[in-house]
Amino acid sequence: MAFFKFENIKISSVATSVPTKVVRCEDFYTLFGEEAVKKFQESTGIKEFRKTSKYQTASDLCYVAAENIIKTKNVDRKEIRALVFIAHSTDYRRPATACVLHKRLGLDKDCMSFDVNLGCSAFVYGLNIICSLMANSDVNKALLLVGETLSKMTNSKDKSVAMLFGDGGSAILLEKTREDSSIMGILKTSGDGYKSIIAPAGGFRNLDVTSEEFMWPDGNVRTLYNTYMQGEDVFAFTISSVPDTVKEFWAKTETTAKDYDCFAFHQANLFINKMLCRKLGLEMAKMPLSLDRFGNPSAAAIPMVICDTYGKDEESKELNVLMCGFGVGLSWGVCSAIINVKDILPIIETDEVFEEGIIKRPEDLLKK
Description:
17 strands, alpha/beta, five-stranded mixed β-sheet, 9 helices, ACP_syn_III_N, globular, single chain
């Protein structure tokens, strides 16, 4: 069991941003047929999602979320000594997108910054990474940035995922505290399922694969650069491994479902989340959902649903939150933390694009 526990480190703010563009499932009537779209909506609970513009990236969304925290909480940028960006949707193959964000946020040179390549479990893994850095260094404040632009990796003709994935980015500020605060969790991996959710081309294993569209065995059209998901395998994994790990966490921490005010789970789809509630004996009222309006935003799902649920509430009230991320990898984890409602910011809509980062020709690299 990869169990972790950190004392005297707290989540001091959570923020999320989404693109302004709204794509509704009804927009796919012509392509997939009204009956098929309505069936999808019924099973997934998704009515619409957000989609980035051509040059808008996950880092743009995370930047806006981070700036929101820094300005709202009046954070001294020099006090932020670590930045970790977790996503599959990076700006470039190199350098690390964290370095770009470091520049944009105006952070000090003494701030360590790096990327981690994870998807649906990014937030839970990210908490472990950030807390580990803080617990073993003089870093008192750190930023965890998680985001994804999966709409850029899906084929609009692929009815299995074209209406499923949305774009979003979140920022989480962590800091050391003298308060009685702890962050605990369990992390797991099943590498045998690496093909279950995959975009096969574009990495260094398959650099020059054709961009031709194929009719895949599941009856959907996509290229090898598009995201492919084996739905049945992912479903079987989710409803077995995920609840088992939550129960393992409860046993390890000597807690039960009654000890938590909120269950902020990955926004997979309505059917899966209902199944998890049933298997774990949870109240659906305590498992908030944002997927009806934002789809499945992968890495940003957990902080997004927290911001969506509590972001407009200015009351000072502490929540004991159980968070669970699961999916691509296959990778999953569960963790708990106390978060004060007043530290949760409302979701921001943005068209922000880092124009300087758009490089179409060699001379663009010379622009300052």
